[in-house]
Every structure is written in C-alpha cells, then in structure tokens.
C-alpha cells in the first residue's frame, strides 16, 4: 500500500495528467474497458454494456493530498479534472470494444504475465526516457519518479526483493494496478512516436522540474527510499519485446474475446420490484413466477394492501359488493375498456328525412330572456334556468364567466379536453349489458353527457322498428320534441346509460340557442368517480310483450322497466288464469246440457274440486292485482292532484302579487321621416306549461312542481320585499317632462306610492292572472302604450331589438334616484337602438332636452330579490 501512497496512481488522475496527448487517454481507456473484470452489476436490462464499463471505480485507493509534495499538489489542482468519486458513477461504453474493432490486451494475458510486466516497468521507463517520451509529471507509474532519477534508483534495492516485498507482490490478486501500468507503458511507448517537438519539450521540462524537486525535497526522497520498493533491476529491452510479442493474443483469440457473451446480473431487490400484487420480495423472480402460476398463493383476505383491497371491493359482483367507495385521489379506477361493436358514434343531433322539414316548420317560437344581475350569476332565480333555456349572448347579459346557466357550452368545452374532463366511459355490467361509468366526480345537477342521435319522425321510427331493428334486443329510442324521436342507435355514449328505480341522474330536455337538446344531468347527490350512471327510464313498453325485468337492485325497485302502474301484465296474467280455469271446467263438465259422458262420476268430482280451487285462486289473484292497480292509480292521482294544486296555488299567488315581465323587449319603430315614432315593447311570451321535461315521465310531474315551489318561494320573497318597499318609499315625480303630454302624466303621477303603482299596473292591463303576458306597444312620442296586435312584427323594416334593460336598472328602484337612473338607462337603451340619421333626433328627444318622461309601473320581479321596472301603458 505504501507504494500506492507514494505514487499518485489513481486511474482518473493518471489519465487526466496526460494533457499533451489525448490519444494516450483514449488508448488507455480502451485498454481498461477491454480488460476490466471489476464492473458494477447492471441495474436494468438495457444496461448490459455497463458490464464492461467503469473500471475506474473499484480498487484504486483514496490518495491524500498531504502525501504529495507541494508542487505536485499544485500541478494536480491545475490539471486534475473531477474527483474520482464524482466520475465513478459515469458509465462508459467502449464503442470500439462493442464494435469489435478495439486493439486491446486481454486480461488473461495481463494476469499471466503480471510478474513480467512488473519487472519490466523499469525497463520501459528507461527506454521511453531515452526516447524522450515519458510522462511529463512522472506520475503515470507508482515508481516513475524513481525511474527518472538515476541517483534515486541507485538508492533502491537492486537485488532480489526482501521477503516481505515478494510476499506482497505474490499476494496481489488484482490485475488492476498491473493493467494500469501496462496501459501506461503502452501509452508511453506510442507517445514516443506520437509526440511532436513541442510535446517532447514539455516532457523534457517535466523531467527537469522533477529533478529539481527531488534535489530540493529531501523529505520526499527519504520517504521514497524508506518505502519498500518492489521494482527489480531492469531487464533488457530486448527481453521485454520478446516476451510481449510472443504472448500477444492471436486474431482468433481476440475475436473470441469480443464475442464472449456478457453475463447479465439481474437486480432482485429495489424500488420497482414487487409492483405486481403476487410478488414477494423475499423470493427470487423465478420463484415468484412459479408461485404466481400455482394457485396456492392466496391473497391476504383479512388485511390486503389498501390499493388491492379497494380494487377487490369495487370489482366484487354487485350483489356482494359492499357499500364502499375509495376517494378518487386514493384509487383511480383504470378504465376497463368495453368496445360495443355495433355502436356508430355521433355527438350531435342529426335530423333525418321528414324530421328536418318538420323541425324547420315547428321551431319553438317562445323565447326566454334572463334578468339576472352579474352578482346573481344566473342562479336558481334565473328565468332562463327556470324555463330550461340555456343562457347565451342573445338572451343573457352576464358574461359567460359569470353566468352559471350554460351547461351545454360547458359540455362542449369539456369534450375538447382529455378523457377525464369528458368523464364517462362504457363498461360492461354484470347482468344489464353495457353501462356507463363516471371517470370523475360531478356536482349535483352538473351536466354529464348529451343524449344525441338521429332525430326521426314517428313513421320513420315505426319503419325502423319493423325492419332494421326487429331482431334487436336493445332499442335506443327516446321521445324528443314535437312527436319526434331520438334514435341513438347511431348516437352518443348516453345511449348506454341504464335504468334504475333509484337513479343518480336525470335526463332533461333543454332549449339551447332555440333548439331542444337532451342531456344527462347529475342528480341531487352528485356523482362519485367510478359510480355507474343511471336514470329512470319511465319506460313505455308499448305492449306487455316488451315488459322487461328490472335488475337495478335498489331497495325500491319496481321490478320492471317502467312505471309501477304498469302492473297490468300481472293483472292480465291473472285474468288469463281465470279464463284457463273456466275453460278447463267446461272441458270436464261439458257445456250446459251436454255433459261429458266419458268421464265417470268420481273423476268428475275430483276434477271439479281441482277446477274450483283453481278458479278460487285465480279470482283471488285477480282481486289482489286489481287492488294493487287501484292503489297505484290512487297514488298516482294523489301525486298529480298534489302537484296540480301546488302549481295552481303558486300561479294564484304569483298573479295576485306580481306581474312577471320579461326583461327583453323589442323596440319597434315606425320609420316615418318626421319622427321617431312607435317603439314597441314586444314582450316575451313564456309559459309555465313549457316546463315539460321529457315526455311520458312521472318525474316530469315532480320537476315542475319543484320548480314551482322554488318559484313560489321566490314570489313570497318578492311580496315581502314589495310590502316593505311600499312602507318605506315614496317615489317622486320625474324631474324633466318629455312633452306636454308626458309632463301632464308625470304631474299626475307626482308622488306615486307602491300601492298607486300597483293599481296603475293593474289598470294598465299588465297585471296578469295567467301567463303568458299580453304584449304591449310603447309609443315614445306620445308616452302611451297599448296592447300589441297579435302579429305586430310587420310594423316596418326598422324593427329593432330593444337592447335589454341593463341589470342595474332592474335592481330595486325603490328610491327616487334609483327610479330616475333606471328610467334614464331605459331611455339610453332606446336611443342606442336607433341607428342612422334618426339617431340624432332620438337623442334630442330622449336625451338632454327631454329627460325622464315617467316610468312604467313598478312591479315585482318573477324571481330573486329584484323588483323589476315594467314598461306599461302610458309610460315612456
Ligand atoms: C338504452 S339500453 C341501455 C344500454 C344497454 N345496457 C346496452 O347494453 O346497450 C336499454 C336496455 O338496457 C337494458 N337495461 C337497462 N337498464 C336495465 C335494468 N335496470 N335492468 C335490466 N335491464 C336493463 C335493457 O335491456 C334495456 O332494454
């Protein structure tokens, strides 16, 4: 070990010290790579090349800087690149070796001739020095400093080594140091021919420096001489060459050496092992594989790992499955891909055949506009929401970011995202064919997926049922709009959603940009990831033949796909039983007067007893089934009556206390040359009856009633608001009259109270007992309004849509100033709606000179906590 300490021979430093000839470096590396047997085991399959790499790691001792002379340390610092430690992890791949083109010295040869090599080191050094090609720093070999200095060499023992040294030499097992020496020797030998003039000069100067150093540094010299030097007297150069040449491997040997397969060492422990559930880290991979194949390995049923426990619970057959859900962030179910074969996909409604024509003719005329303020965000009180109209830029003033009533727009956005944004997938169920599962959570009432398909007429549906689908087990038909039908045989994923008597979703029809569209929405509880999506089909089987057993497995399962009142098939079965029994009796006893003579009296008696009991049973069954029917019908009737009375009450209350007006009006102007004439407020016609959600659904009865109850509570809130407003507020007269007529009007209405406003509203005919509202025309020039003719759209080509009343103007104009500002903003909008040369006139009339010409009635809004300004008869 001393010799190592004395000579800084770490591989890295050795290599880095060859600054003048980079080829030496390359040669040295290739030799190392070729002959190293001390590689680090590879850690992956692709890492086989690493078997031959990284020879620099293992055995070179850590050298200490204190052991070196000062100058040497300086030189080291200047020339050394990175530390051995930091380089050790870098795998080096010797391309020459891998390609089989490297000229190298096999390890075998090196080991065999270790001794020779050791002995010849000195000779090599000498010879290279003669040729002027030694390493400049004299650090390549342990004892290179000795070789450079003849005095020093003289001090070294020249005879046979002492016993200790010889032993140590014998004990040396590793060929590494020898290898390094061999490499260096080769490098130096080749350097002698490769070095140019300059290189040789550097070499010489290095030699001089070392000599100077030696002279001045007695301590180093002493240390060197004290150390056991294992170098033997230099053999003759001729001998070296003879030995080297004779022992060089032949070409065949080299080739064999190169192609010899490298043994791959597999990692048996570590982070990425045991990723499959049957892996046991205590065993080898092969043993694990064997175990996996044998059925003997049973999963720990009591305490399985959490991830596997969750998976197991979720994958149990649904009857055994426990009521258990892992949160999404703990267990994200991997999609079990089901690929339905005959599914032609489309995510948009396609009108087919006559349906397109019918659709164009029967486009819904009714419109809805919302009056929500931005802070309300089109929430529960939004009129559009209430009417199942989606808000958009044409019917809502709120920006899309703040409006929460744009479900289909959200769906469109989501469909452009990734599959988890989209959030649903087809899965195979145990006993109901395919189904749909949520891949994410959904909030209560959030849109999930659109039910899209081909829109066909009833006739086309019949044709398809009788021809194309006559052998089908599943139909994907749903009543849509105006007696049209959505056929989702070619349709969206929603067609796979199964029925449940306790569903977690609802299928709802909305009007989006004037078109009806169906979509599946989350129910009141919301949806968890992994949950199967279901809705109540309220299936109409058309005939008893089509009645299907329900396998939803819920507590309140009705037993069939359809409403409970469809117990009719059972009743029918009972009736058939009675008829069968009667027939039997007749067969036995024969018809009246012609009793069968064939049967003996005993047999007749026996059969008669059986027949009587059968008849009694059948009758009992009929009675029971009739009783069930009656009860079901009674229940249905009660529910309907309850809903109807609730609806009636709500309407009565609403009509007695408020007048709901739509926000959007249309300004109709008669294009006379002289004046800005008639501005008609064409009121939106909406009907509560339009809230039919989807056809033939008892749920549809419930839904409007829920809506109505919400509506009713909104109405109540407004009633109390108006009452308190009427107590508080006194509305002053508008400050600047519009015209003499308007001035007169405003004078008469100088101090309108809430009550007077109410009475005014009622006298103007705006007060409605039933919806829809009567449309009014508003004459700005005269300040009067009158009910519009039913078809008032033909006023003239200057018809313009009245810019919606700003939401601000809708908010509680209970004080004089707020009323004034509301009125002003109405006027501004009227003016804004006028374009072209008449605008100036309008501005003149409505704006500066004219001021506020009096407000319409102050009524209660239909929703939320706002009180809405209504342009009524006699108003500007
Ligand atoms: C619109 S498809 C639903 C998707 C269907 N499971 C499939 O594989 O294509 C309706 C059919 O699914 C089956 N189905 C849906 N819900 C069911 C339930 N709760 N019980 C039994 N069958 C059901 C019935 O065969 C029904 O006719």
Task: Write a structural description.
- It is found in: Chromosome; Nucleus.
- Residues 546-562 form the Post-SET domain.
- Keywords: Chromosome, Methyltransferase, Nucleus, S-adenosyl-L-methionine, Transferase.
- InterPro entries: AWS_dom, Post-SET_dom, SET2_Histone-Lys_MeTrsfase, SET_dom, SET_dom_sf.
- Its main location: nucleus.
- The protein is α+β, with helices and mostly antiparallel strands and 876 residues long.
- The protein folds into 6 domains: 2-259, no CATH class; 268-298, no CATH class; 302-332, no CATH class; 344-364 and 419-562, SET domain (Beta-clip-like); 569-655, no CATH class; 666-696 and 721-870, no CATH class.
- The radius of gyration is 49 Å and the shape is extended.
- It has 30 helices and 20 strands.
- The N terminus and C terminus are likely disordered.
- 34% of the residues are buried.
- Helix content is 42%, strand content 8%.
- Helix 3 (22-35) packs antiparallel against helix 12 (176-194), helix 24 packs antiparallel against helix 25 and helix 29 packs antiparallel against helix 30.
- The chain has a 4-stranded mixed sheet. A 3-stranded antiparallel sheet has the order 5-12-11, covered by helices on one side.
Write a concise keyword list for the protein shown above.
single chain; 876 residues; alpha+beta; 30 helices; binds S-adenosylmethionine
């Amino acid at each position: 070990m001393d010799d190592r300490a004395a000579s800084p021979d770490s591989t890295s430093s050795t290599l880095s010290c060859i600054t003048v000839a980079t080829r030496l470096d390359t040669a040295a590396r290739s030799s190392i790579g070729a002959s190293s047997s001390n590689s680090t085991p590879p850690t992956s399959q692709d890492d086989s090349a690493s078997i031959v790499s990284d020879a620099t790691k293992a055995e070179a001792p850590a050298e200490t800087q204190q052991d070196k002379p000062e100058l040497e340390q300086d030189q080291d610092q200047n020339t050394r690149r990175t530390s051995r430690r930091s380089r050790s992890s870098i795998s080096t791949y010797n391309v020459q070796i891998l390609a089989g083109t490297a000229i190298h010295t096999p390890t075998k040869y090196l080991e065999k001739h270790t001794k020779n090599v050791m002995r010849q080191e000195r000779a090599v050094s000498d010879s290279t020095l003669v040729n002027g090609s030694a390493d400049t720093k004299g650090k390549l070999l342990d004892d290179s400093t000795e070789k450079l200095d003849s005095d020093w060499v003289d001090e070294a023992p020249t005879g046979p080594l002492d016993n200790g040294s010889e032993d140590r030499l014998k004990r040396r097992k590793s060929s590494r140091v020898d290898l390094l020496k061999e490499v260096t020797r080769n490098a130096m030998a080749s350097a002698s021919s490769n070095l140019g003039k300059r290189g040789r000069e550097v070499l010489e100067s290095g030699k001089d420096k070392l000599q100077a150093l030696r002279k001045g540094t007695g301590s180093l010299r002493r240390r060197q001489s004290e150390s056991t030097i294992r170098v033997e007297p230099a053999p003759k150069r001729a001998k070296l060459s003879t030995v080297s040449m004779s022992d060089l491997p032949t070409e065949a040997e080299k080739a064999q050496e190169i192609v010899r397969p490298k043994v791959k060492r597999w990692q048996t422990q570590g982070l990425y092992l045991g990723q499959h559930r049957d892996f046991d880290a205590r065993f080898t991979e092969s043993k694990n594989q064997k175990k996996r194949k044998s059925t003997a390995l049973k999963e720990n049923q009591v305490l399985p790992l959490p991830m596997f426990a969750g998976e197991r619970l979720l994958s149990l057959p649904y009857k055994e499955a426990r009521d258990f859900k892992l949160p999404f962030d703990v267990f994200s179910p991997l999609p079990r891909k089901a690929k339905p074969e005959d599914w032609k996909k489309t995510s948009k409604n396609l009108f087919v055949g006559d349906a397109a024509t019918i659709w164009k003719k029967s486009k819904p005329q009714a419109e809805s506009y919302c009056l929500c303020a931005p802070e309300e965000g089109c929430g529960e009180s939004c009129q559009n929401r209430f009417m199942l109209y989606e808000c958009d830029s044409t019917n809502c003033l709120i920006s899309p970011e703040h409006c929460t009533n744009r479900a289909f727009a959200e769906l469109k956005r989501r469909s452009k995202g990734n599959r988890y944004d989209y959030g649903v997938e087809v899965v195979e169920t145990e006993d109901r064919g395919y189904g749909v599962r949520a891949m994410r959570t959904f909030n209560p009432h959030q849109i999930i997926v659109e039910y899209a398909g081909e829109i066909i007429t009833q006739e086309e549906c019949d044709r398809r049922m009788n021809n194309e689908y006559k052998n089908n087990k599943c139909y994907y038909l749903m009543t849509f709009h105006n007696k049209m039908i959505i056929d989702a045989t070619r349709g969206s994923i929603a067609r796979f959603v199964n029925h449940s008597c306790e569903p977690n979703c609802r299928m709802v029809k909305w009007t989006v940009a004037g078109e009806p569209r169906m979509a599946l929405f989350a129910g009141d509880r919301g949806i968890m990831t992994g949950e199967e999506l279901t809705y109540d089909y309220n299936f109409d089987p058309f005939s008893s033949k089509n009645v299907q057993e329900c396998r939803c497995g819920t507590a309140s399962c009705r037993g069939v796909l359809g409403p409970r009142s469809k117990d009719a098939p059972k009743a029918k079965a009972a009736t058939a039983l009675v008829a069968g029994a009667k027939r039997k009796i007749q067969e036995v006893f024969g018809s009246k007067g012609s009793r069968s003579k064939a049967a003996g009296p005993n047999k007749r008696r026996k059969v008669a007893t059986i027949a009587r009991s059968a008849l009694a049973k059948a009758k009992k069954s009929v009675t029971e089934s009739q009783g069930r029917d009656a009860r079901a019908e009674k229940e249905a009737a009660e529910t309907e009556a309850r809903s109807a009375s609730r609806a009636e009450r709500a309407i009565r209350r609403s009509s007695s206390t408020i007048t709901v007006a739509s926000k959007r009006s249309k300004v109709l102007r008669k294009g006379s040359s002289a004046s800005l004439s008639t501005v008609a407020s064409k009121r939106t016609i909406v009907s509560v009856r339009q809230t039919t959600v989807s056809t033939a659904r008892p749920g549809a009865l419930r839904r409007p009633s829920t809506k109505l109850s919400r509506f009713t509570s909104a109405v109540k809130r407004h009633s109390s608001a108006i009452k308190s407003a009427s107590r508080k507020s006194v509305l002053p007269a508008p400050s600047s009259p519009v015209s003499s007529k308007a001035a007169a009007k405003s004078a008469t209405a100088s101090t309108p109270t809430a009550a007077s406003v109410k009475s005014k509203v009622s006298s103007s005919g705006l007060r409605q007992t039933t919806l829809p509202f009567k449309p009014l025309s508003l004459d700005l020039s005269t300040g009067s309004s009158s009910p519009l003719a039913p078809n008032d759209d033909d006023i003239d080509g200057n018809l313009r849509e009245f810019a919606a009343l700003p939401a601000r103007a809708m908010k509680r104009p209970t004080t004089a100033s707020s009323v004034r500002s509301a009125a002003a903003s109405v006027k501004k909008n009227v003016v804004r709606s006028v374009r072209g040369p008449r605008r100036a006139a309008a501005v003149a009339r409505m704006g500066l000179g004219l001021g506020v010409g009096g407000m319409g009635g102050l009524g209660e809004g239909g929703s939320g906590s706002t009180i809405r300004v209504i342009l009524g008869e006699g108003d500007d």
